[in-house]
């Protein structure tokens, strides 16, 4: 290995983590790495960067420059345990395996605080396997967990998981101060006061929690890896604000330990949140900034003062009074119009949460707090005055009356104060967020917001109840009054149950006053938040405000089927459409552009993972289920595995991890992926997909042993455009086509979408597979959208699928038997049937063992009672080719003899005569005769081809290759050669066979490339042979023998540099083993 810049061959540290050794691959790449050894030395892990992100984040927290202290991180004395969760095989995407192993390492190394600058959208806040493990680490092992809230702002409810959606994690928003703007971002004029970055995600969560708890500086010039060829770099994001807060937490913990104060994530978090400096002056600013900008000195003072108080966290669970539901909320979030038009009552359950291991008698029984409840808006949110809280928890009711509020965003809090120690600040908070929407009353539905004035960082939020029947919006935005270019973020968000937030976003640059148009889909009946934000650094240095007018027009075509399923029959599907809002152009278009083929595992293996790094802190061993799937591609294609049960959920998933690899028969891996599978280009061939699932619960994994997986393939040129009809018989008769019409408000119109015709079905679409694509109905303004015949370009499209039916019965099977029957006797017909059955039995016999091969040979000999019957002789030749025998010389002689029997059984003169004449298709039995002759020609060509290959192999075994090469050179080039002695040698036979093959087939075809390559190679034409080999590799890239042939040809040509290059690539193309998961 490489250690501290010095090469130490064969020396691997016993514990590289403790020894803290690192290496550099080379001075050229300047890329550092570290090693870890697992499983008693059987696994060596070499770890390097996926990106500069992790180094930058760690530098913000703990960078230490003793000679340049101004470059230090927040907590330069802190020790760092680096846990890589970004998988380099996936770019830098985090995986469940990496996340779980990181938490195990945190507990193993007794870490005090975690920073995680990663995250994704989630469907369910505060839910999933990772969240369960985090709760255990925080509550049992008393680790403070700090994480980035996300970079998906400025709309509300854009916080990501886990940082912004998990109760036990402190989610951090990104703040920029005037000094940062001037120094780090080098702006010509800094803002007058600090503000949240425009892109920083906002709360609340979908279940009402605040989402953003604190804010910290969200940009920094910090260290980056040496391979970037620079020491430091400016980056910004909540990925930077989180380590900034984490460094502050490290300072607090260090000071608490120095003072002998007991450290708890509960007390540290309370100290942070209750000492923040508020950002902004409006109550709703908390949804952007949390409780404010962290103040480390004040937080430590708070912690000192609270040192003797019990360490408690208050778990909040909320339900609507009188409403039966299994889901608990963490806040009150009234977003829809129906909630804003009436008072509602909510039951709040408060449960004090002690750390695991708390003493029943000394801590739980004596616990009692008298809490004074406060409401920040008593006219709207009413709560009791007092609450006596004991360990078993208490509930109280809150009444929310938003009926007198104006349209827009409103934020309130109900919070509890310790009557005996009010200096502690709020012990718990119940966020109450109300987004009262504006009702669109015009017909057609159109709403305009004008005179909106913008300065850098200014955000305008408008809430609109989307009219029922609306499915898309056409928006027009006009700017005026600005002398410099302005950049705006325009977002639209809706929230629907059991869905991730429905979000549309755009970034528009107005270089001068102008107009831009946008179109996006909406869901009728739900509140839409429309956000317009001038980017925080756009327009600085200008004294002019940008004035914006935005016009929002709602359109919609309501259809009877959100998803269209064609069942594989010839019957079309009836669709009913109506426009509820205004006249709309109805112009349906549908295209099937993908195919999904279902597979079940061919093998499953359940095993316990290594105790080195896959044993949970609780002592439970993580188990792994490895499922193996086999599939074949007849042509090169772009494919993507789909696992409907597991895909697209990393944090809101009860399964710990999923990872797949696609490899060929040579163990070469072509694609890898996890929860977000992507398309991969695969050449023609057979593939194995291994899927790796992890969990501690054996029953969960047992239930997935027959998990269905789909291989999705892009159709590209084979995509099928579907047709529409006015009649149910249209797909069969071809009449009554439907194109477009105009829907009047309130009127309905129906039409049919037909299935694809059988001749349009793509190749390799087996029974049970599904063709899928999109269908759209409306036709937006051409100024806004130009979709053509592609429904996916329409702002609103729906999924359409077609179930591939069973293949049609072979029409030729038994088709002409009647005409023949009249010309043959019963005995002749019976003899032919018996013969064909015998041949079928021969074809189905196995030849895996000597006994099976002997049985096959006995039957093939007895079938010689049908001499000159070409199909039988061709079957015997095929059987010989499938054999694996030790005596290769005799085997090839048998193949040559069998091929000769096939060739001699065919009247080649008659065959040539028939193929050269253009027959009359109307003539009786012409088609049958033509098919028979073409089959005979194919059998002849195959026999000649296999004979040629066998002659070469036989010559090689007999040592006649030199004679073969000399003979070929003499015949083709005209040089004297040394043929064999008496009799016809394999040399003469090869050339004779090749020339005969050329009469019946195009020898340049890829099918016969092997024979052409051998002929060219032994003729001394190495360049031509190399060209043929390269073409064969393009056709069949998985054959190791072809690459070895290429290397041999390059060696013979004297191109040593290419030989060395190809030999190195052989290790990649044909690895000895499959990689580990």
Rounded to an integer, what's the Rg over CA atoms?
A: 37 Å
How many strands, which pairing sense, and closed or not: the largest β-sheet?
A: 9 strands, mixed
Number of strands: 48
Alpha-carbon distance between the two ends: 23 Å
Overall geometric form: globular
Task: Give the integer mean of the pLDDT values.
Answer: 89
Low-confidence runs: 1-13, 812-821, 969-983
| Number of helices in the DSSP assignment | 26
Give the percentage of residues in beta strands: 25-35%
Structural class: alpha+beta
Helix residue percentage: 25-40%
Domain Peptidase S8/S53: 13-277
Family: Belongs to the peptidase S8 family.
GO molecular function: aminopeptidase activity; serine-type endopeptidase activity; tripeptidyl-peptidase activity
Keywords: Aminopeptidase, Hydrolase, Protease, Serine protease
Notes on the structure:
The two termini are 23 Å apart. A hairpin with a 2-residue loop joins strand 1 and strand 2. The radius of gyration is 37 Å and the shape is globular. It contains 26 helices and 48 strands. Helix 25 (1040-1053) runs antiparallel to helix 26. It is α+β, with helices and mostly antiparallel strands and 1077 residues long. Strands 32, 34, 37, 40, 42, 43, 45, 47 and 48 form a nine-stranded mixed beta sheet that branches. Strands 6, 7, 8, 9 and 10 form a five-stranded mixed beta sheet that branches. Strands 14-21-20-16-18 form a five-stranded mixed beta sheet.
